[in-house]
Write a structure and sequence with these properties.
Strand content: 35-45%
Bound molecules: zinc ion
Shape: globular
Number of helices: 0
Distance between the termini: 10 Å
Largest sheet: 3 strands, antiparallel
Structural class: mainly beta
Oligomer: single chain
Helix content: under 10%
Strand order of the largest sheet: 3-2-7
Order of helices and strands: EEEEEEEE
Length: 65
């Protein structure tokens, strides 16, 4: 069973901005532009600038089950 995404949300570690994608095509970018998210509750897509690593954001997503 795959975990069901309840909230697709991250916080940028550079600017502290919390961004949340609420639907499949709801692309959000943080204030400083280092990270972005997309995919809503269908898939937790992460978009980065030059360095694709979790050092740039804190995972705040919530799952059911
Ligand atoms: Zn940022």
């Amino acid at each position: 069973m795959q975990k069901k995404l309840k909230k697709n949300r991250i916080r940028c570690k550079h600017c502290g901005d919390i961004i949340e994608s609420k639907s499949t095509n709801d692309f959000q970018k943080c204030k400083c532009g280092a990270v972005g998210i997309d995919g809503g509750l269908d898939y937790a897509k992460r978009v980065y600038g030059s360095n694709p690593t979790e050092l740039h954001y804190e995972e705040l997503s919530e799952y059911n089950g």
